[in-house]
Amino acid sequence: EIVEGSVFPQLVCTVEDTRLGYGVKIANLHLRPPLNLDGTAHLETARITGHVRLAEVRNIVHAHHGLEILAGDFNEQDGAHALSYLVDSMATNGMRDAVADYVPSHKETHRWPFFFGTTLHKRLDHIVYQT
Q1: Does residue 67 contact residue 129 with C-beta atoms inside 8 Å?
Q2: What is the pLDDT along the chain (131 residues), one digit of tens a residue?
């Protein structure tokens, strides 16, 4: 199912290890950027596009039961809509955020040159895994 407002396709695959006799189900995500569909952005654009990212994650989780790894460009910081859904709402399923678990909070995954020589530092790329 295509989520309204989504701009990138998602990829789900199972990586099989024939020697061990099992596979790992992986989703590669590139969620909706915090931009308007015409490419413009405003101060509130990240907030008003959060529901699209949440719908994208919900859609892929419900369409592909048994996902063990979801990784990619979530286009949102720690604790935002989609990531919170996976880690908090699905904690009973043993989902964990590898970036939060293993990368110090002051380390970013994305740098964006901004106005007047400043650079925004953000953690937009995430790996969520089944424990």
Answers
A1: no
A2: 789 999 999 999 999 988 888 899 999 999 999 888 898 888 788 888 999 999 999 999 999 988 999 999 998 888 888 999 998 876 667 889 888 888 767 766 666 666 677 766 667 789 999 98
